[in-house]
Amino acid sequence: MPERKSSPWPWIIGEVAGTFLLVFFGCGSVCAAVLHGAQVGIFQVAIVWGIGIALAIYLTASLSGAHLNPAVTVAAALFTDFKLTKVIPYIAAQMVGAFLGAAVLYAIYGGSLAQFEANKGIVRGQPGSEASAMVFGEYYPNPGGEPLTTDRLKTMPTWRAFVVEVIGTGILVVVILGLTDHRNTGCPQGLAPVLIGLTVTVLISLLAPLTQGAFNPARDLAPRIFSSLAGWGAVPFTVNSWGWLTVYICGPLTGGVIGGALWKTCLTALYRTTHDELV
Fold first, then answer.
1. 8, 109, 238, 256: most buried, per Cβ within 10 A?
2. What gap in Å lies between CA 65 and CA 11, rounded to an integer?
3. Number of other residues whose CB lies within 10 A of the CB of residue 168
4. How far apart are CA 139 and CA 30, in angstroms?
5. Residue 94 lies in a domain
6. Can you spell out the DSSP letters for 225-257?
7. pLDDT tens per residue across span 36-73
8. CATH at residue 189
């Protein structure tokens, strides 16, 4: 008898729903902080990101493995038994989820955005409107709710922002693959999503002041596209020149590959050795 093909809907729904929640919780915390001052300091924003990611993973891991990030999907395809044929569909589902997350946040915070821009004298779609667009896509250095001046832009050149995203994503992918490796007996059972969320919290706390801490091409690109369609026009793709591509897409993908390679070449051998000794 021919092999029965399993339905793709569970993992499609898992990746769409999980990435939607990631953006809704994470970018929502940025909206609340920038537009309403609801969080005091970067850690409060970071911990909401971390908790949101943990919840998204718990909800969708049994459906799709809860990649929720193209950098994780590519690393999984290169260094685990995840099928290469699923890479593009997974990333497409992640982009859809992230775009929907941005759209829902805009529906909720649209009035707050307009008031914020009016108070700051910001004209949406004009130079300086990255100060409000930052609640969706990301910019370097972190605008912090203010237009980026020429002097501030000089403090974070593209090469340095790229390195930040590579390092952050590399660490994140090492942690994800390490915590979900069944041979790693040091990870408390059932707590991997919490620990992954805390890893994101730490990374955002350290690196978001520099690049806003993307570490996820879908999380950045889909909301960035939405913001462009919602009135910011070319601003999301011109403030940092080609940085939207080199820093926020190529950077995390590169970091994910490096992180996956480190896990595969270094940690798996050590896990195997210690696992065999314990057994």
1. 256
2. 8
3. 28
4. 13
5. yes
6. HHHIIIIITTHHHHTTTTHHHIIIIIHHHHHHH
7. 999 878 999 999 999 999 999 999 999 999 999 999 99
8. 1.20.1080.10
Q: Are 54 and 197 in contact (CB under 8 A)?
A: yes
The tokens describing 39, both together, are 């969080």
Is 267 among the domain residues? yes
Within 10 Å of residue 51's Cβ, how many Cβ atoms?
A: 18
The reply to whether 90 falls in a domain is yes
Yes or no: say if 22 and 100 are a contact pair by the CB < 8 Å rule. no
In contact, 204 and 214? CB cutoff 8 Å: no
Number of structural domains found in the chain: 1
**What is the rounded distance in angstroms from the CA atom of residue 145 to the CA atom of residue 31?**
10
What CA–CA distance (Å, rounded) separates 72 from 11?
15
Q: How far apart are the first and last CA of the chain?
A: 39
Residues 6+ apart with CB under 8 A from 149: none
pTM: 0.94
28 is a domain residue: yes
Q: Which residue has the tokens 């050590």?
A: 270
- Which helix (H) or strand (E) element contains residue 170? helix 158-179
141 prior amide bond cis, ω within 30: yes
* C-alpha Rg value of the chain to the nearest Å: 19
The four Cα atoms 231, 234, 240, 242 give a dihedral, to 10 degrees, of 140
What is the rounded CA–CA span in Å between residue 147 and residue 155?
14
Residue 105: Cβ within 10 Å count: 23
In which domain, by residue range, is 74 found? 9-274
Which residues have CB under 8 Å from 246's CB, separation 6+? 158, 162
pLDDT in tens, 72-109: 999 999 999 999 999 999 999 999 999 999 999 999 99
